[in-house]
Amino acid sequence: MKGKLYLIPSPLGEYDPALVLPKSVLELLPSLKCFVVEELRTARRFLSSAGLKGHIEGLEFHTLNEHSSPEDIQALGVLFDKGDVGLISEAGLPAVADPGADLVALCHRKGIEVVPLVGPSSLMLALMASGLNGQSFAFRGYLPAKTDERRSALKEVERISKALNQSQIFIETPYRNDALLGDLLKFLQPSTRLTVAADLTLPTAFIRTMSVERWRSNPITIGKRPCVFIILV
């Protein structure tokens, strides 16, 4: 019988897993001997702090990230011949804005059972705390990095948000956070509501929703912190 793929959530920052993950996740981890991870060092550190300290060397790790080729992903299919496999993202939920989605797709093609586990999602936490429309929303991923393309993308996102009364969620590489925020305040309509949610679940968490006009009068520096942006016209 083929093994299962367990989608294992991880903390959104340097945090004790016992404080943010359900007991059921922590109890499952010792039963798994094979993991597919986005970043080896982060995964080893997470598993060690989650109760597997002293047992890490006996585990099998395989890397799946943005550099993995289709052939690399296909090769992971043989892991399930030996038993269950855990998928761990760099932070939060695996396979959501995450290359692990390719392994999940492979499992569905091969008829391998996929088991999602409960844990923190920066996207959903930000939406929950935004006060914006939680009935209708879309995750846009990353906006273009070039200013001209980003301006056009923001105008289109505003158009969609207004037409559908739909919250638009997006993220950015941390070192570009402040550049993106600057473009949001420059190109969005003054009345558009904007949520900035950084360091969610951490002691340094920051979540605020204001109109673009108010943001312009009360600017902030985000820095290289994991951050989610949401707008609603």
Structure description:
- The protein is of the alpha/beta class.
- The chain folds into two domains: 5-116, Cobalt-precorrin-4 Transmethylase, domain 1 (3-Layer(aba) Sandwich), CATH 3.40.1010.10; 122-232, Tetrapyrrole methylase, C-terminal domain (Methyltransferase, Cobalt-precorrin-4 Transmethylase, Domain 2), CATH 3.30.950.10.
- It is built from nine helices and ten strands.
- The protein has a five-stranded parallel sheet, covered by helices on one side.
- Strand 8 and strand 9 form a beta hairpin.
- The chain is elongated, with a radius of gyration of 19 Å.
- It starts with a strand and ends with a strand.
- The model has no long low-confidence stretch (mean pLDDT 93).
Draw up the topology in text:
Elements: E1 5-8, H1 17-20, H2 23-28, E2 34-37, H3 40-52, E3 60-63, H4 70-75, E4 85-88, H5 101-110, E5 114-116, H6 122-130, E6 137-142, H7 147-164, E7 167-171, H8 177-187, E8 193-198, E9 206-211, H9 212-217, E10 227-232
Parallel strand pairs: 1-4, 1-5, 2-3, 2-4, 6-7
Antiparallel strand pairs: 7-10, 8-9, 8-10
Return the CATH class of the largest domain: Alpha Beta
Q: What is the CA-atom radius of gyration, in angstroms? A: 19 Å
Relative helix content: 25-40%
**Structural classification:** alpha/beta
Outline type = elongated
Strand content: 15-25%
CATH architectural name of the largest domain: 3-Layer(aba) Sandwich
- The ordered string of helix (H) and strand (E) elements is EHHEHEHEHEHEHEHEEHE
Terminal-residue CA separation: 51 Å
CATH fold assignment of the largest domain: Cobalt-precorrin-4 Transmethylase, domain 1
**What kind of sheet is the major sheet?**
5 strands, parallel
Instruction: Kindly report the name of the CATH homologous superfamily of the largest domain.
Output: Tetrapyrrole methylase, N-terminal domain
Total count of strands: 10
Strand order within the widest beta sheet = 3-2-4-1-5
- Stretches where pLDDT is under 50 for at least 5 consecutive residues are none
